[in-house]
Amino acid sequence: MKHAIFTATALSLACAQVAAQDKPANPLVPSLETVVVVSSRQETPLREVATSVAVLEEAQIEKLGYTALVDALRTLPSVSVSNSGGMGKTTTLRVRGEAGYRTLVQIDGVDVSDPTGTQSGAQIQHILSSDVGRVELLRGPQGLMYGADAGGVLNISTRQAEQGNKTVLSGEAGRYNSQRGSLNTSGASDKLDYFVSVARAETEGFNTSKQDTLLKDNDGYDNTTLHARLGANLTENLRVEAVARNTDASAQYDRCGWPAIDDCTSTFEQDAGRLSLSHRLGRLDNSLAYSKSDISRQSFAAGVNDYDTEGSIEKLEWLGRAYLSEAHTLAYGLERRSDSVREMERDQDAVYLEYQGRYADRVFFTAGGRSDDNDDFGRYDTYRTSAAYVQALDAGELKFKATYGTGFRAPSLFEIDYNQQQTASYGYVLAPLTPEESEGVDVGVEYFGSNGLHLEAVLFKQTIEREIAYDSVGWTGYIQGDGENRSEGIELIANMPLADQWIINLNYTYTDTKTATGSARPRVPRQLANLGFTYAASDALQLAVNLRHSADAKETTGADLDNYQVLDASVNYQVTPMLAFYLRGENLTDKDYVEIVNYNTAGAAAYAGVKITF
Q1: Which family does it belong to (predicted)?
Q2: Residues above pLDDT 90, as percent of the chain
Q3: In degrees, to the nearest 5, what angle opens at C-alpha 53 toward C-alphas 33 and 392?
Q4: Residue boundaries of the structural domains of the chain
């Protein structure tokens, strides 16, 4: 921990010295007036937000250029990723060391969690970057209005429509016989706005598993995603919006069946939609929304179907705000969530209320509570409080912030059903599962310089009681300990515009994790860092580079994983306002690194693409 604090302090001082001269504000560098939605499900400037939020703008996502959105998310603070053998393979995203299923993922307001999964997390590997306009990541158990757990909330928005009409056509090709193409069109007027996207990605991939010593075949992946969003302003105070999304993907992989073979295929299809109605009347804002996501998955061993499942999540939500005065607001909501997997079903009702206050445009405070009533486990109450104080300085503004939040996670339908089947088939005596409970606190300080410099340091600590895990010793089923799992550390972030051409982005995260038995959580790097920069040689030519560092992670066996660094870069050239070309290199040093033991990772790869806008 001392090493982490020393590194963080040194990095802050270095950043402050480098960005000594005043520079104009840059839209790719956060400011106190940057607006985010994820913290309280309403547009709020960072000046008033005490929670820890990271943002990826559309321009940043485009410059990075990755096909899969999860690869762009790797550049955010406190985000680590474990991938089992290439694009489209099982992928886990961890925030502050927490398991991926603890982070709620939604796209244009639609919860895209997979109820058929072991712990009902989102299948993050199937989200392409082609239609993404913005990403907001809320770190920590602060999702009061979402019912999310310890990992936070990942809020993904598709591209926003501009006045008039715009169509973008793009395509690329590269190593592993990879191709990607997308077409999206959007438009807006005073009454109507729309966005429609079609994206296709496919790759032959590479041999997924090091244990595949016989076939040694390439394990490919393909994904077709359709997304549409239509909004209509019926009156000045009444708006209706509809969202529809379909993802159809298939992947080849190794090590399936018993005994294990390497001729394996999986399919994934998700249909999701949301319909919302928003109304403003005087000092009241209210919205009513219905959303549903259907998922079906199949697995084949040597062409024979050995597993299939399907399920859905339905939500009916009412979200409102009452502006008591300019300084005092109440946010409130009701929610009914219904999960189903095959013949299993479960409902959960929730009500929440949050007070939001601002004083002298310097002090910002929130306090709220949420009550969930679960069909299987009864009522659970959770809370969140946050406070921020902004102090003006000669060369900028300083923001101090602190948050405290709690959460809970009911055992998934899969976990419950699996244990019941194990008991019925083998007679195992398994204790009934109960909900996990979590709490988290973080304290931080941010500096927003008049020169555009942004520095942030956050200390965090999160705990989970009675974490549910699979019995990897007796192989009996899902069991629950009496102890406490924890994750604590420090995040250091720096965004620096230099001269007129350069932007430097740095983040470093030190995460110390412990399970109830005292061991480190598997596949969680103790040290994570990103060093990125963007160089605009001219209005037409831009270069983006990112170096990612991971160190001090352990496997599920307790064995050490090797430290590694991965270097990526891209060049974009805008030939005309309508035509652009780009080149992207991934893992430029051809680093042979491991995220999961016995699974291969991609070597050095180059991609070339074109984008046409009209």
Answers
A1: Belongs to the TonB-dependent receptor family. Hemoglobin/haptoglobin binding protein subfamily.
A2: 86
A3: 40
A4: 2-613
